[in-house]
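Archive entry: two folds, one per protein. Generate the first.
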Amino acid sequence: MPKRILIGTVTSDKTDKTVTVLVERKVKHPLYGKIIRRSKKYHAHDAENQYRVGDTVRIEETRPISKTKTWAVLDRVRASRGEALDADIGVAGQAG
């Protein structure tokens, strides 16, 4: 039986060797016919801790690695744009 491969976005990389991947799919409502989005989160194995929040990755179904982790990250499809940082920049000439 072939292994399933899904594409999703990394939503959390806080745990060691694990990333949480959000996979969205679009389905047609059975009665009304409107296209709606369904999403599910998967825990995927990331041995080198190299994937960050916002990365789009491909995950593959594997043998159970832990209680909730049965997927492994194959590769990065698109890198994240980075996270915004709060900067405390004082502007000269403004009365405050």
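Generate the second and append.
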Amino acid sequence: MSDHRLFGNLFLSIGAMKAGTTWLYTVLSRHPELHFSLEKEVHYFYHRYVNSGQLSETNRLKNAKQRYLFRFEPERAKIDRVRQNLHWVSSYLSRPVDDHWYSNLFDLRGPQTYACDFSNLTAHVPSEAWPHIQGECDKLRVLYTMRDPIKRLWSHTKFHLQITDQLEKLDSWTPEDFRAFAKKDFLWDNAEYGAVLRRVNDGLPRETWKALFYEDLHADQRGTLKSIEDFLGISNFNYPQALLEKRTTESVKVSMPEFFPELFAEDVSRIKSELTDLGFEPPSSWL
């Protein structure tokens, strides 16, 4: 009988959307001690503790069809890779969606130290969920990344309008339209850094989680990556420079309106104060 807990060693990245999480995923997936499932953002803990419709059968079927089942060319594909992908999709489509379901998503893991899940929605689970998550782990490590709230909000706004074919609104919206849209929960909740950190801090021992700023990450990429590896207790890896310079999921290049920062000035002042109260000093470059 195994002495290991259900999730084994689990590394969760819960950083805010448009705050460098995809870049971190792309880079860290090269590390030989980290195992990632086929789906970057499983959102299981959000499904379990916040919105039980997140991983409905319909949503999982849509993901399987759009992302996995028809995305290989028989003439070019490697049969073992396709077989592994289909095995993973079978686990992803199984039921019930519970802790065993989640654990099975990582059953192709080899000798790697951690199973890894980069899901920004996990940041929104309540504080009382964290002890249960930790209780199913041999070792749990949680990473939270933050970015200048205004720049993150502008990037998120552009990105959402881009993927929903509504870019024309960037030219037609009034300041009131921008503010109303940005205040929608699915955008704005990503900016409430203090609330996220309070929930994590209330639910987990301090040594199990780490917070960092997007600006520091890109000011010293290798140094920050080393700090993450040290936090995880894994070896330092020499990532290819070309990989560090790669940019992913960039929003369309449209300049921020001059009025945009002022729309949220009071909110940003509050968020910065909350971070300071928690012992974090926001970068001086924040608007």
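Annotation attached to the second fold: The CA atoms of residues 134 and 179 lie 37 Å apart. The chain has a mean pLDDT of 93.
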